[in-house]
Description:
It is built from five helices and no strands. The protein is mainly α. The longest helix is centred in the middle third of the chain and has 33 residues, at 39-71. The model has no long low-confidence stretch (mean pLDDT 80).
Amino acid sequence: MVWWERTRNGIRGLRRRFGQRSVRDEDEGTGAERQRPSRLTDAAVALLLAAADAAALAGVTLLMFIVGMSHSGPPGRTPAESEDVSPLQLAVVWFVPCALAVSCYVHSRLRMPITSVVQGLFCVIGTTLAIGETNMLLSFT
């Protein structure tokens, strides 16, 4: 209990010395000296990344269509042999949603709210497509 009181008193002393700012904010530069990018820069980056993400997700959708059509046979006929899903296939499927989630996190840490929201929406769409493609790959086994 003495250790806890000593730690709490030490934190109070640091807060008094640094003017109610946390030491972490002072060390990382997230205090008054670090500014967020302008809204125009944020919107421009959001539009650029939205176009890139739309192209990536369109490619994933096209890939899903091609893989699904290649594994389906004529109506009323079942596939001759079942295939195992390799971990590499699943890694390729889940790469885009993971990259979008990392991008959303990075842009929120960079204090770019417009870009972060756009990346978050594309992350939700990419995750939905990845779930669909995973289900499609697993249904072929």
